[in-house]
Amino acid sequence: MKYQDKISPVKDYSVTTVMGIRDQTVTSKMVRSGKKARMEIAMEGMGMQAITIMDPDADGGKGAMFTLMPAMKTCVKMAIPPDAAPDKPDAKEPDIKIEELGKEQVDGVACDKRRVTITPADGKTQTMLVWLSPAAKNMPVKIEMTAPTAMIIKFKDYDFQKPSEDLFKVPADYKVTDMAQMMMNMR
Fold it and tell me: Which domain holds residue 45?
């Protein structure tokens, strides 16, 4: 998410993702509106659902991440981890190198294949192969990464309508626990 603005100008969408890591497959729904993001994950086999909302404008602009557990109507609020936060104005811009690798089909979708190499200020380079669909506003159809963990993510069912702002709010009937406050109380 944090480098998406550098690769694609699309700010409002929802999409279904299928992520393969080792022997596990996780299906989720991602929703983005501006810099706000929401991910809904159904934990198959466990009968649980988790929703994560990242809002860089929460807490007076400090940003917050909310993890909702709908079955229990609870929410844990945390500061956005620095490595997950969208780039702040005072942060050093990452070096992004994009190499065109031609055209390929992914699940019947015509794509432009690219190698994207991102080198953030910490120098920990990430390289990924990305297949982008011109028919879906040049959004990814597939991403393959090898480090830090081998992972394949496929994207399907894009919807480019502006999502409802309610998707990025914690429902009023949820009990919210502030992780920082809880840690302070444990001392």
Answer: 4-186
